[in-house]
Amino acid sequence: MIYTPLTKKALKLCFEAHREQVDKSGLPYVFHPFHLAEQMGSENAVILALLHDVVEDSDYTYEDLRRMGFPTEVLEALKLLTHDDAEPYEQYVARIAFNPLARQVKLADLRHNSDLTRLDVVDDAAMVRREKYLRAIDLLERAAAGS
User: pTM, whole model, 2 decimals?
Assistant: First the structure.
């Protein structure tokens, strides 16, 4: 993890935004963005990893994050990572592929979410979700190789 004033601010905000949330196994959800952030090698990537679900899963807005001083590059990548259910998933992933920062964080997100050992029960829905994520990983890796 890279510790700067902005990454510390993002850590605190991430914790606050996800404080009461749990993942599919009942573990505190905040462990997921922390896990992603630990894999990142730049300040902006750490911030994005920590904030990647904040707008989607809390009451915080992009404008709130802008006012808090998070960089434009992070906010632009965050907008790409925030999935609108009205948008087809494949289109959403394809959009992310063209932004290196968003792509890096999304790949880490997909890999972590594809890890079935995180789940207490691996049912058909989990297997379908994993296959969807593996297809997305393939698309993003091919985009990264072409950059």
Answer: 0.95
pLDDT digits (tens, 9 = 90+) for 67-125: 999 999 999 999 999 998 999 999 999 999 999 999 999 999 999 999 999 988 899 99
DSSP the chain: ----HHHHHHHHHHHHHHTT-B-TTSSBTTHHHHHHHHT--SHHHHHHHHHTTHHHHSS--HHHHHHTT--HHHHHHHHHHS--TTS-HHHHHHHHTT-HHHHHHHHHHHHHHT-GGG-S---HHHHHHHHHHHHHHHHHHHHHHH-
- Structural domains in the chain, sorted by start: 5-146 (1.10.3210.10)
